Amino acid sequence: ERFISAVGQVTATKSSKGNAKKLTNQCVGSGAIGKDGESKSDVKASEALRCFVNLVKEDGYWIDVHFTPMILEISFATMQKDIPVAIFQFDQLQNILQDLGAPNPHKKRKNGTTAGYRSSALSNATVADYDDDVLKDVC
Length: 139
What we know:
The longest helix has 15 residues, at 45-59.
C-alpha cells in the first residue's frame, strides 16, 4: 500500500509539478503507453502501477521524493541517532492524534478519493491491482 500511496502523491492533480508532472503524463496521461506499445488514454490501475515500478527500477528512487524508501525517511528524520521510532498503521492516525491532544483529529486536509484529485486510473487502486511480477518488484 505504501507504493500505491506514493504513486497517488506523485499523481495528485493539484501538486504535480516539474518531474512529477512528467512522470504522471508518462504513466497515466497522454504519454501513457499500453502493453502493445500504443499510446492510450484509458490506462488501468495495474498498467499505471507497472509503469511507475519500471520508472523506479530504471531511474532509481530519486525520480521523486515520494518514492524514497521509508527506511531512508526515518533515517533522515532521526538524523541517524539511536532514537526509537514507532511505526503504526495509517488507519490509526486519528487515534494517535487524539491521544496527542490534536484539536481536530478527524479533520482531513487532503482527500485522495475526491473526484478529480488524482488520475481516474489510480483513484481506486489497491494491492489487488498488482500482478505477481509487480508485487515482487515492489517488495
